[in-house]
Every structure is written in structure tokens, then in C-alpha cells.
Amino acid sequence: MSTESAVDIFLHIRATRYLNAAGLVVLLYDHLLLLGEEVRYLWASRWTLQKALFLWIRYAVPICVIIHTHQLAGIGNSELTDKVCIIWFDFSLYLGQISVAFGNFLVLLHLWNLWDRNLRMMYATLSLFVLTFIGNMACTAVTIVSLNETIYFNRQLGLCAILDRGRTPLLWAPSIAFDIVTLVCVVYSALERPRSAQTAVTRVLYRDGILYLLLLFLLRLVNLFLSIFAPVSLIFIGVFFIWCSTTVTVTRFTLNLMRMEAREKARRRRQALHIELEEL
Description:
This protein is 77% helix and 3% strand. By secondary structure, the chain is mainly alpha-helical. A two-stranded antiparallel sheet has the order 1-2. The longest helix is centred in the last third of the chain and has 41 residues, at 239-279.
């Protein structure tokens, strides 16, 4: 159980509030910045798995983070109960794991194109993704069971809190393993393929894919260290900020590729039209 003083808990909660609010501001600001490109490249396109995953991440995550920010702010929470806190805590953990899995799979779809849809790589990475997702959900369930008895509504601070860290390090372990293996595969593929054989789209795939996986790995590593070594009131300080950061990264990654693919198609049409005019 936690042995922190009331002052330490208050300062840690305030730091968590500020970082959570900063993540939300970044997420909403980036959402507005990319809204024009989203409308241009996505809304008019046909419905695909990629489009469905992108829109789910794009709109479900901000809604969840806004609700959590309101709860963490302690404004208008006087009627909350321990049961409500437990339900919200469990729901947000599962939703976070699912949204990160959707983001990973969205990146994986692009990486398969990068690997020229090599069946061996597709089956290997898909198997790794499925095993990681099952591991994540199992670890989340174990963590929730270990924490539910310690979750309560703190009436002095006006927010949901926990008394013990439980098995929170388990939340990050499977995803970190997935990030390492996938990052190694992408770097190996980039080094193996001659630079002269890379198009503008594949260069974006390599650059943004490596950036996304590396950023995700580092952020999850921070969460892992916090869950192990930080005081109990501070172990979730980076969770929602990191959730916002990974959402921004994967949506930018996807829209960058859509923009590059649209430019590549326009370039090919111009070339075809130029050839036709020359033949005339």
C-alpha cells in the first residue's frame, strides 16, 4: 500500500493533471491542423479496414481523453462513487489497449506494402501482432483484478485514485516486445533494399514507420519504468499523454502516406497524358 504523504499525493496529482491536459491540447490542435487533409484524402474514399481503423482512432481517443481530463480535474465529481471509478478505470485501460492495437495494425498494413506483401513477413508479423494483442488483453485483465480492490473515490481531491500499484508493469511488457521485433524488421528491410529502388512513398514509409515504432517503444519504456519505480500516485502520469502522442503519430503517419500516394498517382497520370500527347 502507498505510504505517501498528503502533500506528495497532491503534488503528484497536480503534475498528472497538467501533463494530461498538455496531451489533450496537442491532440486537439493536431486534429484541427490535419482536418483539411483528412477531408481531402479520406472522407471521399471508399470504406476499407484502413479507413475504419483510422476514423476510430481519430475520434474515439479524443472523446475518451476529454472525459478522463474532466474526471482528473475534480470538477463536478462530487457524486462519483468507488464503483463508478472502478468501472471507468477498467474501461479506459481496455479502450487504451484496443486503440493502441488498432494503431499498430494500421501501421502494419502500410509496412506490408513496404515489404511488397511478402507472405512470409505478413504471416510472421500478423502472428506476432495477434499474440501481442492476446498478451496485452490478458495482462490488462490481471492488472485490473490486482487494482480493483484498491481503487476508490478521493473526496478531498475530487477524483478517482488507487492505493497500490498492483501488477501495472504487466500492461506494457507485451507491447514493448512487439515494438522491438517490428522495429528490427523495418530497419533491416530499409538497409537491405537499395536506395535507388526506393520511391518517394517507400521513403516516407521507412522514415515515418521507424519514427512511429521508435517513439512508441520509448514512450512505453517510460511507462514501464514509472509503473515499477515511481510512487503510486505518479505511476499513471504519462499514460494519457503517451496515448495522445501515439495517436498523433499514427494519424500523421497515415495521412502523410495518403498525401504521397495521391501525389504519386497524379504524377503517373501526367506522365501518361504526356506520352499520349507525344504519340499524337
